[in-house]
Amino acid sequence: MNEQSFSPPYERYAPLYDQSGQMRFAVLVHLYLRDLLRQHPVSGRRALDVACGTGTLALLLAADGWEVTGVDRSAAMLAQAVARATGANEQVRFVHGDMRDLEGLVPATAFDLVTCTYDSLNYMPTEGDLAACFHAVAGVLAPGGLYVADMNTRHFLEHEWGTCVIQEYDGYVQIERSHFDSASERNIMVLTGFVGDDDQGYERFDELHVERAYPPETVTALLERAGLRVEALYDSFTLQPPGSDTQRIFWVARKP
After folding, report:
1. What is the pLDDT along the chain (256 residues), one digit of tens a residue?
2. Is 193 within a domain?
3. Do 166 and 75 share a domain, yes or no?
């Protein structure tokens, strides 16, 4: 299989994303944010969800009374988010754009909370890209505003991510084939989907998803270099510090 046979990440997968159970993570984050905000309160109710995907977290925050904007670089994922918002009571603004460059997409210093979850930051290929994300967030956070973001750890990408996972749903079969490259600290996953049924047949698509592991100390240093004060690192969905076998770390950082 050559690289030209891959669809862009999330392009063909977008209409199937929620169906494949991915929205459950956003629901867990929504509940976890309530705990985090009790530990790290903010004064306002303006939220920006970066890499918002199909909009689950943004819509849940809006239902809680937040004024919410969602940003994502995938037009296909945003189309799903807009369709869901149209059928909901909550008003959420969705914007197409790259989280490395938020200037001009959303107002500066306008948000009390910025989130970036579900290992979206692991998709950043270089430290420079990661630094650009953090500088962009610092520019749109209001003074005293909070940034909550998660990343998969190297331990998870190397040892816990299954090499072959097959999932079957109504009208859709998904195969994930992964391997970890130690030299580049990247997990390379080919997502193959088959959409259709036994009567009419199935249409296949393939997407390439690459996640890079970053040492926690590197992430912390880049956040602080961007002008954000790191208040805590948590083992995923807990209020405990991460350990050697932690699979996902949540960073909580504040703009002074």
Report:
1. 444 489 899 999 999 999 899 999 999 999 999 999 999 999 999 999 999 999 999 999 999 999 999 999 999 999 999 999 987 777 899 999 999 999 999 999 999 999 999 999 999 999 999 999 999 999 999 999 999 999 999 999 999 999 999 999 999 999 999 999 999 999 999 999 999 988 889 999 999 999 999 999 999 999 999 999 999 999 999 999 999 999 999 999 999 9
2. yes
3. no
- Can you give the CATH number for the domain in which 124 is found? 3.40.50.150
Domain-embedded: residue 8: no
Q: How many domains does the chain have?
A: 2
In whole angstroms, what is the distance from residue 45 CA to residue 208 CA?
Answer: 36
**3 in a domain, yes or no?**
no
Contact 79, 14 (CB under 8 A): yes
Q: How far apart are CA 92 and CA 196, in angstroms?
A: 32
Nearest to 151 by CA among 222, 216, 77: 216
Tell me if 225 sits within 8 A of 238, measured CB to CB.
Answer: no
* Domain identity same for 26 and 36: yes
Same domain, 192 and 81: no
CATH of the domain at 170: 2.20.25.110
How many CB atoms are closer than 10 A to CB 238? 12
Give the range of the structural domain holding residue 189, as residue numbers without chain letter: 156-211
Query: In this structure, what token pair is assigned to residue 175?
Result: 């195969």
pTM of the model: 0.95
The answer for residues whose C-beta is within 8 angstroms of residue 225's C-beta and 6 or more apart is 131, 134
